[in-house]
Write a structure and sequence with these properties.
By secondary structure, the protein is an alpha+beta fold. It has 28 helices and 18 strands.
Length: about 750
């Protein structure tokens, strides 16, 4: 045996040991759990998966089987799932990546495991058009299966968590796609299922890959301020420990530190600095109740004991004990004023409540090994019921469906009462019409208004927690298209869309007949390219919308349409689409028109040989080759990505842009890595908002900082002053985002200037 063969044999032996050790760790973890021990079937699933994935490696270079083992370990250790879930996790990629079918899995491992594996297997690509979102379709399939067995989605979350933990080996464009998808769908989903720990990790990992510099900056600041927090925690909790010891409780007090992602999110939404966030530290009291049935009362006893030490905030008592959240979360939240003058939130929960808070529904040990449900999962079934209702009327457009589900995932909850005093849990932000659809589709579709707390309100009235709502109906009322604009819940939106689609089908048919007749008269046929051209020309998104407009006679086909289809040059100078409605676009000069056409000609077109893994470089020479949409206004220094649009042009978005979030989670295969290579030669607009105490010379001080000290041009200033307080915005010309940060740093040093916020 030569040296090369010996090295190869040693490497194989080392890998086999690594795989065996990883599987043994999984078994040990499973054997330490409360589940009925079914080691044989787990071992069988492992051997089958190991053989199926033999010789395959991940991008990181490790054997592929390490991934299913890691997913099964997360399912077992972090979610507390049993043998059926562990087997399904070990087998979750077999059907997708090898020649084995779902039938093979069913024959060897039974119907239940096969059903879960089938739900986890992606739809094979190529059956949707370029414009359809395969990701959205996959997610739709996932939820369809999930409504039969929740374990599908739980294992999918385990799979996603391990992919996120090992994301470093992926190219940058894939990182943005996977991180974006995680933030858009999987983190809210984990939150909805009560998997708080996993939700936090998914958010932080997404943040780390999308905004590495910001992530590191927050991590460093958390590390540098940890000593201060430890001192504050000790001073705050010492008197509490004394009080709880007197009661004679078995308890644990933990410090809960806000995650980097939630800190960054707050900084973005509230336009504040790290130093201005005061709720980074929270305190968690976890106790063992003396009598399990009395644990809610014991929570309140602890609250009474600690509120004798510290004054509580009157508006910040959150009782999740008597009204648990929809994901099963129970706790009592109270905000207390520390002796150091800081508000600190204290979360009081029993050991069982803590387990549910961290592991969600999985902590209820709901699944017996036979696969049947136990009875303690009313909330989860209610939520699955909502999803089933939306799935009963599957929308033709998977993206609309995705958005509908998304609404339900993110929402925090309020409690609303019926006229008879029954309590209903609704998402915060819902309207009277949402409430009507929640009770019954008939009630919603014939709703004309509501009485909230005995006062008459319109359909669009937003409900608050504690409202008593009575729905008013009329048989003559019908669903209106405008309702879509103000309903909030996924259920109401899906029902309204379904009713409107039913009403529109006839009109669409007529529209299609009109188009076919017109095309036939002009010796043309209805093809997808004809449809695309007409949709672009009339600025409509989908063919269905075009048929509807033709059926309603909102669009009348004529010569201009014919010229567009035949590619003839327009005789007149009028512009199509949105520009017709903008006054200053009328009557363009010829030279301006030429410039416009030239700029379109200069745009980069993605060809077949284009390498998606390579980053798109934006420099002074190439900047005009890309589209910069108005949704997020990226400037040099921003974390950015590219997106290949339907015309094969490249759009540049900020990675944190809401539009980009939707694109990452729906059209991930079109996402590109993009990098700046600018040399402070070009200027870009940036808007900074300022607030503070009005005084003489304030504007002069602001101008001094920007114009004299930093030598930058102020483009526009708007200042309003009222009762000694002023607020305003400054539009400046900058080279990059670093200059914006420098301006803000310098502005914060001005006396009486209280707030400085970056808007664009």
């Amino acid at each position: 045996m030569d040296e090369h063969d010996m090295k190869e044999a040693a490497r194989e032996a080392a890998e086999d040991k690594m795989i065996t050790d990883a599987f043994q760790h999984l078994l040990d973890t499973y054997l330490a759990s409360r589940h009925r021990k079914k080691v044989d079937i787990i071992t069988k699933a492992f051997n089958f998966a190991k053989q199926a994935h033999k010789g395959v490696r991940r991008l990181s270079g490790e054997p592929y089987i390490m991934h299913p083992i890691a997913v099964a370990l997360i399912a077992c250790e972090e979610m507390g799932l049993g043998s059926t879930s562990i087997c399904a996790a070990l087998l979750h990629d077999v059907v997708e990546d090898t020649d084995y079918t779902v039938d093979d899995i069913e024959n060897i491992f039974g119907t239940k495991i096969a059903q879960i594996v089938d739900g986890l297997t992606k739809i094979s690509g190529g059956i949707f058009g370029d414009k359809a979102s395969a990701q959205a379709e996959n997610f739709k399939k996932l939820l369809l299966t999930m409504s039969d067995d929740i374990r599908v989605i739980l294992i999918k979350i385990c799979d996603r968590l391990h992919n996120m933990r090992t994301l470093v080996s992926q190219p940058a464009n894939k990182q943005y796609k996977i991180a974006g998808e995680t933030l858009y769908i999987y983190a809210p989903l984990a939150n909805r299922l009560g998997l708080n720990k996993i939700k936090t990790e998914l958010e932080d990992l997404s943040f780390k890959y999308e905004h590495p510099e910001e992530y590191k900056a927050i991590q460093d600041k958390l590390a540098s301020t940890s000593e201060q927090r430890d001192t504050l925690f000790a001073l705050f909790t010492d008197p509490i420990r004394e009080a709880l010891d007197k009661i004679g409780l078995q308890y644990e007090i933990k410090a809960r530190i806000k995650s980097p992602y939630s800190i960054w999110n707050k900084m973005q939404n509230k336009h504040v600095t790290f130093e201005e966030i005061y709720d980074i530290l929270a305190v968690r009291i976890i106790f063992e109740p003396k009598v399990r049935e009395e644990e809610i009362n014991e929570c309140f006893n602890i609250y009474v004991a600690i509120s004798r030490i510290y004054k509580s905030h009157p508006d910040r008592l959150r009782d999740w004990l008597n009204h648990p959240k929809a994901n099963g979360y129970q706790a009592l939240h109270v905000t207390l004023m520390s002796k150091q003058g800081r508000w600190i939130e204290v979360q009081i929960r029993s050991d069982h409540m803590d387990e549910v808070a961290e592991q969600g529904f999985a902590a209820h040990w709901k699944y017996k090994d036979g696969g049947e449900y136990t009875e303690d999962e009313g909330e989860l079934n209610d939520w699955l019921g909502t999803i089933k209702e939306i799935l009963d009327d599957p929308q033709p457009d998977a993206m609309d469906f995705l958005d509908s589900i998304k609404l339900n995932l993110f929402a925090s909850e309020i409690f609303v009462f019926t006229p008879k005093g029954e309590i209903k849990t609704m998402p915060a932000g819902c309207t009277a019409l949402d409430f009507a659809f929640q009770i019954h589709t008939f009630l919603g579709s014939h709703c004309i208004g509501a009485k909230v707390n005995h006062k008459l309100v319109p359909l669009s009235h937003k409900l608050s927690s504690g409202d008593q709502v009575e729905i008013l109906t009329s048989k003559s009322q019908h669903v209106q298209p405008s309702w879509i604009n103000f309903v909030y819940t996924a259920k109401a939106r899906a029902k309204i869309q379904a009713i409107l689609r039913r009403d529109n089908r006839e009109v669409q048919k007529n529209g299609e007949t009109v188009l076919n007749t017109w095309l036939a008269n002009n010796s043309m046929e209805l093809t997808s390219s004809v449809l695309d051209k007409l949709c672009d020309f009339h600025d409509v998104k989908k063919p269905e919308d075009l048929f509807l407009a033709l059926g309603d006679k909102k669009i009348i086909l004529g010569e201009k349409d014919l010229d567009e289809l035949l590619g003839k040059v327009k005789k007149d100078n009028t512009t199509s689409g949105w520009r017709r409605y903008v006054p200053f676009f009328h009557g363009k000069r010829d030279d301006e028109d030429k410039d416009d056409k030239n700029s379109l000609k200069n745009l980069f077109i993605v060809g077949k040989d284009f390498k998606k893994k390579k980053p798109v470089i934006i420099s002074e020479d190439t900047i005009n080759m890309f589209i910069f949409p108005a949704c997020c206004h990226p400037i040099p220094g921003d974390d950015i990505l590219g997106y290949i649009d339907n015309k094969n042009h490249i759009e540049i978005h900020k990675r944190a842009c809401p539009v980009a979030s939707r694109l990452k989670s729906s059209y991930g295969n079109r996402i590109l890595d993009a990098k700046w290579d600018m040399h402070k030669l070009m200027y870009f607009d940036a808007i900074i908002e300022i607030r503070g105490i009005d005084r003489k010379g304030m504007l002069q001080d602001v101008a001094e900082v920007i114009s004299s000290r930093m030598n930058l041009n102020i483009h526009k200033v708007t200042i309003n002053s009222d009762e000694g307080i002023f607020d305003g915005s400054i539009e400046v010309k900058v080279h990059d985002r670093d200059e914006v940060r420098d301006i803000m740093e310098n502005l914060r040093r001005i006396d009486d200037l209280q707030e400085v916020m970056q808007i664009m």
